[in-house]
Design brief:
The chain has 453 residues and is mainly α. The protein contains 20 helices and 2 strands. A two-stranded antiparallel sheet has the order 1-2. Helix 6 (132-147) packs across helix 17 (372-386).
Length: 453
């Protein structure tokens, strides 16, 4: 009886912590809606607003229609980096005042994240044989970690779109793991994810390695449908302009650009209020450019680009790094299992880390793709501890802490050693987690019954 009371008390404590974590993230959702400019969402909103006014979403209209400015863009082109169909999706939101649109978008992002969490619960625990209280506590701990996962908080503050991408990817994995008959349908969802993040297509080589041809077929079917929808909804002129002009520029510069693309500084000064805190204006309302300050860079390719002689573009470096990882994964996979019947989400989490490391434009907000990691750790850490695999266990914990704990750029930027550590901590975390998870799979002789989705 005494032991049962302890178990109940632990579950109650975890439940309270989860409720506090949920309250905290809802508080931040409201705070960001009220105070923050949300630099990524304003690009989506302005793109939709441009289409509503029969304008090109890839043009910065600060020189001719200042009310169409997104509050941040300093180049002649806009900061909108997606296919025109995405801009069409934001047209309804762009009909609303910016503050209202922000509230809707932020709580929609939170809803998507909670759905992603629910999908991960289904993936990890549908065949779990643990006692009900152990399973419940694992879900509670996973929820606490997920709601306090710093990349998601950063995503909320910027108003990023990666939660939608993650949602479609997890739906794809849910169908993929559930039944081989659903492989085509899972591929369709992976294809839809590509609309929001182009480098989702890097999943395809790994499906080919596994001979998941139905997934690949479904993927290209989904992409084909999106192309047809883009042509009919966005129009042939804008679609052609995106393929021939905007996409090559975005591939080369991202949201940046060359000196001749820059708007004269004296013009921009009229739109940026001269205050000690960075502030911008949308719809006649002042917003903080950042509600929380953090080191946002998580791009290994950008680090290489800065460190190496400027011989290759970041796109070339990106494909080279991805190619190296692809070869290693092919060789590594042959050593661990011919068909990967165990630990499938650990394997695919490794792949998602490889994609974020290979992308030329990875930010901390994009690392929400590593959310499945919280479930993986909750499942495998007890087994690693029992097997006395302390080295792998330590690296997994270090990698997770580097990834998930918040930082404050304003507090660390003037402390030399700590500042340099924080600038590269997300990249370091990705590499540590990548090789640690690989070590977990490499040394797994038999599948653990509680790990297999």
């Amino acid at each position: 009886m005494k032991y049962n009371v302890k178990k109940i008390l632990l579950t109650v404590i975890l439940s309270l912590i989860l409720l506090i974590s949920l309250y905290r993230i809802v508080h931040y959702t409201v705070l960001f809606s009220e105070q923050s400019l949300q630099m990524d969402f304003t690009a989506y909103y302005t793109a939709g607003k441009s289409l509503n006014n029969d304008l090109n979403p890839y043009v910065n209209y600060i020189l001719t229609k200042w009310e169409m400015w997104d509050g941040v863009a300093t180049l002649k082109h806009s900061r909108f980096l997606y296919p025109p169909l995405v801009a069409n999706l934001f047209q309804p939101l762009a009909m609303l005042p910016y503050i209202n649109a922000k509230y809707i978008w932020n709580f929609f992002n939170l809803l998507c994240y909670l759905i992603c969490f629910s999908l991960l619960v289904f993936i990890f625990f549908r065949n779990n044989k643990d006692e009900i209280y152990i399973k419940t506590n694992k879900i509670l701990i996973s929820g606490i970690l997920a709601l306090n996962f710093f990349p998601f908080l950063a995503l909320l503050e910027r108003g990023q779109i990666d939660c939608i991408t993650l949602l479609f990817i997890l739906i794809g994995f849910t169908f993929l793991f559930k039944n081989a008959k659903n492989e085509f349908l899972s591929g369709v969802f992976f294809g839809i994810a590509t609309l929001f993040k182009l480098y989702s297509f890097l999943l395809i080589p790994f499906f080919l390695i596994q001979k998941k041809y139905k997934v690949v077929y479904g993927y290209f079917t989904g992409v084909f449908v999106l192309v047809i929808l883009t042509f009919f909804i966005s129009g042939k002129n804008l679609s052609y302009d995106y393929v021939t002009k905007e996409a090559p520029r975005i591939a080369k510069y991202g949201s940046g650009g060359s000196a001749d693309m820059q708007i004269p500084a004296w013009i921009l000064q009229a739109y940026f209020p001269m205050t000690p805190t960075s502030i911008s204006i949308i719809d006649g309302r002042l917003y903080l450019t950042e509600s929380i300050s953090f080191n946002s860079k998580a791009s290994f390719i950008r680090m290489l680009e800065v460190s190496l002689p400027k011989i290759f573009s970041n796109s070339v470096l990106s494909f080279f790094v991805f190619g190296v990882f692809l070869v290693l994964i092919y060789l590594y996979r042959k050593k661990i299992s011919p068909d990967l019947n165990f630990h499938p989400l650990i394997y695919w989490q490794i792949i998602l880390i490889i994609i974020t490391l290979s992308s030329p434009y990875t930010w901390v907000m994009n690392l929400v793709w590593l959310t499945p990691l919280v479930f993986i750790l909750v499942e495998i850490i007890p087994g690693l501890f029992k097997e006395k695999r302390y080295v792998v266990l330590s690296f997994l914990i270090i990698g997770y802490l580097l990834l998930s704990l918040p930082d404050n750029l304003l507090l660390t930027k003037d402390i030399k050693i700590i500042s340099e550590l924080f600038k590269s901590r997300f990249i370091a975390a990705e590499f540590i987690l990548l090789f640690s998870l690989a070590a977990v799979l490499l040394n797994s002789g038999k599948p653990e019954k509680n790990i297999t989705p």
